[in-house]
Structure formats: C-alpha cells, structure tokens
Design brief:
- InterPro entries: FAD-binding_MO, FAD/NAD-bd_sf, Flavin_mOase-like.
- The protein is of the alpha/beta class and about 500 residues long.
- The chain contains 13 helices and 24 strands.
C-alpha cells in the first residue's frame, strides 16, 4: 500500500511512496508488473507512462502496416499464450497487452501522462526521488521509491532520427518520419520515396504501394531479409488436434528458439552459405532478370545488423508487380521536386518518408543524480546489461537484437524479483554492483562490439551507453540461449553485489 508523505520541496506538494517504481507502460513495463504481482505479492508499485495509453512503440507508431518483426510466440510473454499469426499488427499486440493488464489488475497501478523529469538517489535515505510533470495539466508530481525499474526502452518516442541533407528546405513536397506519421497525409496519386532499408521501410513500402502512384525504397546499401509464411505449421497442426493453447505456446516457443539458435550459430560458422540462402529466397520472388546483386546483396556478414522477417514476401511481391521499386544510391541533395542522387539521377517525389531510424535515449531523457552528482551513464560498467556500477537500486530492461526483446523482459523480471526477495531476507535497503578486486585489470570496452553488431542508432550514440568488460557478467551478451541459464543461476552474494 502506498503511503503519502510530505516532500521537502519548497512547493510542499505531497509525494507518494512505493516499494518499486516502473518507468514505462510498454511491453517491458507491463511484463515486469505482471511478475511483481505474481512473485512479490504485497509489494507496492506504480508505473509512470508519458503517453496517454499503454503499449509504447505499438501505440506511438501509427504508420501504415506497422507490425512486429519478431514472431509473437517469443515476442509475447512466457506466461500468456499467443494465439494469432506469428507476425502481428500493432492492433493485435495492443489487444494482447490489454488482456494481460485486465487479467492481472495492473491498470490501477498505471499513471498515464506522467513525464519524468529527474530521478535522484539519496544514500542517506536509501530512496529514489522522482520528479514528474503531468503532460495534460502541467502539474508537478513527486514520487519516492525504494527501487527503480527502467522499462522505457532505448529510443526517444517523441521524435525519430532524420539526417540533415542539403536542400531539404527547398523541397516543395512533404517530409515525414514514420515515428510521427501524420493523420492528414494523402498518398493518392503521389510519388513517394521511402528512405531506408530496415524493418520499417520493408513494412511501409508494400502497405502504401496500392495507395500511391508509385513508391520507391531509396537505400544507401542493401540489408538482409528473411522470407516465409506468416504462420507456424506446428501451431496449426496442434490446434487441429485441439491441444491446449498453453501447451502450444510453450512448444512453439521452444521450437522457434531452437531454430533461432541454430540460425545464429550458422551465421557465424558459415556466413557465406547463409548469405546465399537469404539472397536466393529473394531472387526466387523477383526473378532471374532483377538486379539482386545491386539491391539485395549486403557487403557485411549476416546478423551484424538485425534481419527483418518479411511475411509472405509482401515487399518483394510489390517490387515484382511494378508498384514499388528500389534504388541503391546516396543522396546528393534535395531539390524542389525530389532528391538529387550522387549518381546524377533525379528521383522525383511528392512525399519523402525518412525511415532512417531512432534517436537513442538510454535513460529516457531523464536527468539522473546520485547523491547530488549528475550520473554520467557512459562512465559506468554494466552488470549483464541490467545493473550499472555506482547506480544503486536500479535495473534497466534492455532486450535482445538477435531474438525477441521480450525474452529478456521475463529473464530480467525473474532476476529483479529474486534480488528484491534476497534483500528483504537480508534486511538490507540498498544494493549496487561494483567491480571486484579481480576485475580491476579487466579491459573496459564499448557497450557492444561493433564487429559483432552495429546498427546506426547504437553507433551514433555509443558514448551515451555504459561500458562493458571482457567477462560474461560485465557485459550484455545478446545471447539469450546462454543467458537463459546463466542469469537464473546468478549468485546474489557474489562480490559484485554490495548491500547496505
């Protein structure tokens, strides 16, 4: 039960206290709340969410055709069976999340339209103080919490990343970013250029191809895609046999995870074979005369960037039909009626969509302080991508790139619930991680190895992210198949954990 206490702020506003404060009501925040409900009954908690509703990405992104690029059998929660097609629309994902909220009485714990401005830790009180503002009224709100659970994701929801190109101000058409898709945009009879080659571009292009005169995907360099039916045969068969959905969910999750592990290992062991197999799938749809070498043959090995799944080959069917096309080139500048390319070609456009990625916001654009000193997140070292040296009573949920994000939500939630239970049993109010004596000569490296994984939004902002060591416990391995065994076995009395 939350207890109202007086704030020491000069405004004397009332602050509310909770055992746990969760930042964000997206896929991570709702999943974490479920685990508190089930594993730590009686724990008081609140979820603060900037938006007017739950869902995070799936509510803020409204561009045509928005869908998952991970299968929902693994992107869905371990505790809630997914019964629809593996690649799901935002609407289907939100309906699924809404059922989790309703079934577990989570709604009463969520405070919408609460933007967090600052979070300050006091070692004297062993408390976090969170200052927030309500986005509709501008009212200042203060909360205190024993433990902070960061579930806000990793990018800025308010704006996407759009590079600055010469001449953008000269362009007479409209420039939009998928992350802030306007309600009033009219695509009819328009020439549309979508800049980008990732999952967003691959989703947008086939979904607007019928609505506009023509759509062109303009990419600087090719990327990898996987093609397949938007269905899982074993799930269909088990449903025909009337097997319980919980059994189907678990069986299909295990099958997919086994296959993903095998595929990831194959990408490392036999990258050229994987590359050929992926490109041959595309060639089979586009035909022998299409220039697959130029437009769909990446120069890097598979899995150095995320591989988007294209259900039912819809992107490539749109290209084959002539309603969509791909141009691989670089932008020289914008001109009044389109984009001048470095090759000399003019790409005419009425509308340009910049599917060019995210702006990283590692800590949700919240001003953090530890005992009055601003937190320089980039100076900390991560413990398994969850905790950070010198930052007490806080865990951050950062999911997987090579597997579904939500797999790590469940893993981290189990860890946090076990940690909070361990602290209660020890009678301690504070926990933080510190490098042990045997770690002090350990090489300190960037958050992630660019040779292993190098998406643009990470590379542009690596300095904002914590450092890693060269030992498994001091890095975010991105390897679910190892972490699913290692994290549950974490020794909470290891010297890396300091209690107080």
């Amino acid at each position: 039960m939350n207890v109202a206490v007086r704030s020491h702020a000069t405004t004397k506003q009332v602050s509310e206290h909770f055992d746990v404060l969760i930042v964000g009501a997206g896929i991570s925040g709702i999943g974490s709340a479920y685990h508190i409900e089930k594993q730590l009954p009686g724990t008081s908690y609140v979820i603060l969410e900037t938006q007017a509703t739950f869902g995070g990405t799936w509510s803020t992104h409204r561009y045509p055709g928005i869908r998952s690029d991970s299968d929902l059998h693994t992107f869905g929660y371990s505790f809630k069976p997914w019964v629809g097609p593996p690649i799901a629309t935002a609407e289907e994902i939100l309906a699924y999340m809404n059922e989790v909220i309703d079934d577990n009485d989570i709604a009463r714990h969520i405070r919408y339209k609460h933007r967090i401005n600052s979070a300050s830790w006091s070692s004297e009180q062993n408390l976090w103080t969170i200052e927030a503002t309500t986005t509709d009224t501008g009212e200042a709100k203060t909360f205190t919490a024993n433990f902070l659970w960061m579930c806000q994701g990793y990018y800025r929801h308010s704006e996407g990343y759009t590079p600055e190109w010469k001449g953008m101000d000269r362009f007479k058409g409209r420039i939009v970013h998928p992350q802030s898709w306007p309600d009033d945009i009219d695509l009819a009879n328009k020439k549309v250029v979508v800049i980008g080659s990732g999952a967003t571009a691959a989703t947008l292009v086939p979904n607007i191809a019928d609505a506009c005169a023509h759509v062109t995907m303009l990419q600087r360099s090719p990327t990898y895609f996987r093609l397949g039916r938007n269905a899982i045969e074993i799930a269909e068969e088990l449903r025909r046999l009337q097997v319980d959905e919980e059994w189907i969910h678990e069986i299909v999750r295990r099958k997919i995870l086994f296959e993903q592990d095998a595929f990831t290992k194959l990408c490392i062991a036999k990258p050229e074979q994987v590359k050929k197999d992926l490109i041959d799938q595309i060639r089979a749809v586009l035909g022998p005369d299409y220039d697959v070498e130029t437009h769909f043959t990446p120069t890097y090995r598979p899995w150095r960037q995320r591989i988007a799944f294209v259900p039912d080959a819809d992107l490539f069917k749109g290209i084959a039909s002539g309603k969509a096309s791909v141009v691989t080139d670089e932008i020289e500048c914008f001109v009044e009626n389109g984009i001048q390319l470095k090759s000399g070609k003019l790409l005419e456009a009425d509308i340009v969509v910049t599917a060019t990625g995210f702006n990283l916001a590692a800590l949700g654009d919240i001003a953090f302080e530890i005992d009055g000193k601003p937190l320089a997140f980039g100076d900390t070292v991560t413990y398994r991508g969850m905790m950070f040296t010198g930052v007490p009573n806080m865990v951050w949920v950062f999911g997987y790139f090579r597997a579904s994000w939500t797999l790590r939500v469940d893993l981290v939630a189990d860890f946090v619930c076990r940690l909070l239970g361990h602290m209660k049993a020890k009678g301690t109010k504070k926990v933080e991680v510190r490098l042990r004596p045997e770690d002090h000569n350990m090489p300190i490296l960037p958050w992630i190895d660019p040779e292993n994984f190098n998406p643009g939004y990470i590379m542009r902002n690596m300095d904002l992210l914590p450092k890693r060591g060269d030992k498994p416990e001091w890095q975010h391995s991105q390897d679910y198949w190892t972490e699913k065994d290692e994290i549950p076995k974490t020794d909470l009395d290891d010297g890396a954990f300091v209690y107080g």
